[in-house]
Amino acid sequence: MNSCDDQVDMLYLPDYMANWPWRRNINEHYEEISAMSDAWFRGFNAFTPRSQLAFDKCDFELFKIRAACLSCLSLGLERWAMITEGCWCINHDEFPEHLRTGCDLMNLFFVVDEYTDVEPAPVVRGMVDIVIDALNNPYKTRPEGEILLGKVAQEFWQLAIKTATPTSQRHMVESLTAYLESVVQQAADRDSNTLRTIDTYLHNRRQNIGARPSFVPMELDLDLPNHVFYHPVIVELSVYITDLIILGNDIASYNKEQAVGDDRHNILTIAMRQFDIDFLGAMDWVTNYHAEVEMKFLDAIPIWAS
Question: What is the Cα gyration radius of the chain?
């Protein structure tokens, strides 16, 4: 087997987080709040029966929250911000309304992905413009006959802003807009059958994975000044965490993507092409790179925050 076009009889998933030094913490309100978010989302009837079945099989909110909040296992990004400000007292189990925002956000991600993954770039452009407009105009009456994405995004944001500080609202809109723009770029890559290099892929995917918006629920009760939010430590650590999410997501999703011929936007496919290696070689490379990024994250933790 010398290329990514060869068949693989069995795929193995490495335990790439085996050496992570902090245990996972799940919010004590998760089951209750997740059920509320799920009931809200089901009310839209957003999916075909086949897509709804796939959605029902996956605890999507928990899966995405676990992935997007790697940085919250013990030392979350917003805790880094509070360290910088000299405050250690926050306990996010005390803010179930912010967990609701996180759960609703995961559902918004899912429906955006479901609607845009099969459409050409011009159609995706139109969908994205609708979502961006809904986020920037949460009380505007949505046009009759508009695609459902506008209503989902608007209702998500109407509830979220009730308990979000002005600065966190700005960060959410900014990061979601960057994510949505990257979805358009992914569609353009799909249309042109573009296969990126590892560097250009990661540059695009850091927005496209949705990590930046997923960090925002941790700051919804905080008014973080720019010198804290863009502190070099936070920026550097967030890039490393985002890359870990990308690598883990691509490992987990590769089999489904290659089965439907949509694996060009996956680090394993890109590694196979770029290095002229087979699947097992690519998996080894991605696993080793994951370990390298993990060490960079740990090494970047400043002594004063240990």
Answer: 19
Can you read off the two tokens belonging to residue 248? Answer: 């883990």
Per-residue pLDDT of 290-303, as tens digits, reads 999 999 999 998 87
CA distances in angstroms from 233 to 99, 176, 251, listed in the order given: 25, 22, 27
Query: Angle at Cα 106 formed by Cα 104 and Cα 110, nearest 5°?
Result: 115
CA distance 140 to 186: 29
The structure tokens listed for 253 are: 């999703």
CA–CA distance, 145 with 134 (Å, rounded to integer) = 15
Minimal CA–CA distance to 281: which of 19, 13, 3, 5?
3
**Digit-coded pLDDT (tens) for 133-156:** 999 999 999 999 999 999 999 999
Residue reference for tokens 């506008």: 150
pLDDT for residue 9:
66
111: closest CA among 54, 168, 160, 69?
54
Q: What is the rounded CA–CA span in Å between residue 131 and residue 233?
A: 31
DSSP string, the chain: --STTS--S------TTTT-SS-----TTHHHHHHHHHHHHHTT--S-HHHHHHHHHS-HHHHHHHHHTGGGSSS-HHHHHHHHHT-----GGG-HHHHHHHHHHHHHHHHHHHHHTTS-HHHHHHHHHHHHHHHH-TTSPPPTT--THHHHHHHHHHHHGGG--HHHHHHHHHHHHHHHHHHHHHHHHHHTT----HHHHHHHHHHHT-HHHHHGGGGTT----HHHHT-HHHHHHHHHHHHHHHHHHHHHHHHHHHHTT--TTSHHHHHHHHHT--HHHHHHHHHHHHHHHHHHHHHHS-GGG-
Q: Binning pLDDT at 50, 70 and 90, where does residue 67 land?
A: very low
CA distances from 177 to 20, 43, 96, 169 (A): 31, 25, 25, 12
CA terminus-to-terminus distance, the chain: 46
